[in-house]
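pls design
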């Protein structure tokens, strides 16, 4: 949940006021978000603890309260003074960066090339006319803008016309807020980083558990290790039965991304951001191929587990569904692999970390499609590319801040050295 996004949603007036501009029509579209700000402020004046990340939620909360000073009065003035000194240097740096490229140029380019500016469009609501982005080029198929509730709220606030799709999207997000998370905000960041981490663990440990349990030659004498494996393997089986209507881990995962959608394995088409990506990192409000690779790897693990079941004596209706799902799943995996291969390029934007994740997926695919020359070629070229840059990336100080080799097209650029280094090593590790 996100206090920052909750604050932005709290500022949205209702549709009637937006269209009439008459004070008698004024009310808030999401009053519960506004009341949340009053009831959940921290002692330090922010809404997200004491570290540096609390500054943005603090500013958003104050902005929301500031738009309605009759409701906040002196309380607003006090908290604004508390934060004023802290953010002055950050504002100066932001203004310097914004002066480098005119916003009009960026918006024009965005019509033909996806940009991450949309994810943080709320920061530019005083600089550009947000009515300019009310089109299919910027708005996702689910109604949001930039995979961000805050950005979506800013469009509803500042664009000239009301946006029904954006409103329904925010309404849906708030309706999904779990009770246990309400102390952290009423609006989620769309993506659930917990799902991302769960997939990572389930693939890395769960797949290993599968190998160990399937290999009779491996004997686990250490009780603690044996317990670890059995516990995590049980986690996969537990998640697959969270809801009897979901049936499998795949369907459980689909429901987490699209709880009101039809449950099937056509996850590539139905739950990706704008039909292309899963939403991932909530703090960055962006998308990445990384989560997609983990999701598909989880599908691969489940597919392997399903294929390994030998105890099917009779084919019940449930078993028929399992067989159908396995066929569909294999097709999905092949489609994703083909898509990744098609994205390979020598001189186009991409980065080492994303390349590493893709190599992990291609290694998995190569186990089942050993005669597919396209996969083998892409895998060889990608691994060669990573090895080429491995020594330099490990040894040269400031490498990730000054140099960024590219391989894959159209992926997010963010350079966290520890993540990139570990992902490179993981992808090059031979089983």
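designed seq:
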């Amino acid at each position: 949940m996100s206090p920052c996004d909750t604050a932005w949603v709290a500022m949205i007036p209702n549709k009637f006021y937006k269209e009439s501009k008459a004070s008698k029509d004024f009310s808030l579209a999401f009053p519960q978000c506004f009341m949340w700000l009053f009831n959940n402020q921290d002692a330090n004046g922010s809404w997200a603890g004491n570290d540096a990340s609390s500054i943005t939620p603090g500013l958003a909360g104050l902005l929301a309260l500031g738009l309605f000073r009759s409701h906040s009065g002196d309380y607003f003035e006090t908290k604004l003074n508390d934060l004023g000194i802290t953010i002055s240097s950050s504002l100066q740096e932001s203004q310097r960066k914004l002066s480098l490229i005119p916003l009009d140029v960026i918006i024009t380019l965005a019509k033909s090339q996806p940009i991450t500016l949309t994810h943080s469009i709320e920061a530019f609501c005083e600089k550009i006319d947000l009515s300019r982005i009310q089109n299919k080029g910027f708005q996702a198929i689910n109604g949001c803008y930039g995979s961000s509730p805050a950005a979506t709220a800013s469009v509803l606030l500042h664009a000239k016309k009301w946006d029904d799709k954006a409103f329904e999207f925010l309404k849906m997000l708030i309706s999904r807020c779990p009770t246990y998370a309400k102390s952290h905000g009423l609006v989620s960041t769309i993506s659930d980083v917990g799902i991302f981490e769960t997939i990572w663990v389930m693939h890395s440990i769960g797949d290993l558990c599968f190998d160990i349990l399937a290999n009779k030659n491996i004997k686990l004498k250490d009780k603690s290790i044996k317990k670890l494996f059995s516990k995590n393997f049980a986690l996969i089986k537990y998640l697959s039965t969270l809801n009897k209507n979901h049936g499998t881990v795949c369907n459980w995962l689909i429901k987490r991304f699209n709880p009101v959608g039809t449950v099937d394995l056509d996850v590539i088409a139905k739950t990706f951001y704008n039909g292309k990506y899963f939403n991932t990192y909530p703090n960055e409000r962006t998308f990445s191929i990384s989560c997609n690779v983990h999701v598909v790897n989880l599908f691969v693990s489940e597919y392997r587990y399903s294929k390994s079941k030998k105890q099917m004596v009779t084919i019940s209706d449930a078993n028929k569904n399992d067989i159908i799902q396995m066929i569909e799943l294999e097709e999905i995996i092949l489609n994703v692999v083909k898509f990744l291969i098609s994205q390979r390029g020598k001189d186009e934007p991409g980065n080492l970390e994303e390349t590493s994740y893709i190599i992990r997926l291609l290694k998995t695919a190569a186990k089942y499609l050993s005669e597919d020359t396209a996969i083998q070629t892409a895998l060889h070229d990608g691994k060669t590319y990573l090895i080429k840059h491995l020594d330099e990336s490990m040894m040269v100080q400031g490498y990730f801040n000054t140099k960024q080799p590219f391989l894959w097209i159209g992926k997010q650029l963010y350079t966290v050295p520890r993540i990139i280094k570990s992902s490179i090593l993981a992808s090059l590790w031979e089983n």
